[in-house]
Design a protein that fits this description.
By secondary structure, this protein is mainly β. Helix content is 12%, strand content 69%.
Length: 134
């Protein structure tokens, strides 16, 4: 866990060093987490590690789903690293920390200049939706 935190802080420091190239993105996904279907709403801060090729993203948000008596909102934080393939799509891997730590693969396909179709899939986690960059 200490290595993961150290890696996260080091990457965040690199991201702060290149603020002009970074962007903020909003995401909205339909998601399934540990057997519960719901929606994810989140924000992310993207920073290129190698401009046009490798990107790192830190973010977080809420997973809104049916609970035992009412609607539950579970907060989460996430980190992703993505490689752009021939300016057509990006493939990567991520880690999501909510009630537990989940690892997943991710894919993004641009459908407009600032809009991307995004999908994540892991062992007990699935999400698909849209990502809008500011």
């Amino acid at each position: 866990m200490k290595r993961l935190l150290a890696f996260g802080f080091a990457t965040l420091a690199m991201g702060i060093a290149v603020p002009a190239a970074a962007q903020v993105a909003a995401e909205g996904n339909v998601a399934k987490m540990d057997g519960d279907w719901g929606g994810e709403i989140g924000l992310a801060y993207d920073a290129p590690l190698v401009p046009g090729l490798l990107n790192f993203s830190l973010g977080g948000g809420g997973f809104v789903h049916d609970g035992a008596d009412d609607v539950d909102i579970d907060l989460y934080a996430r980190a992703e690293a993505k490689a752009t393939v021939a300016d057509t799509f990006a493939l990567g891997a991520g880690a999501r920390l909510g009630s537990d730590l989940d690892f997943y693969g991710t894919v993004e396909v641009p459908i407009a200049p600032l809009l991307k179709l995004k999908g994540n899939i892991g062992e007990d986690y699935f999400a698909a939706g849209l990502r809008f960059g500011f």
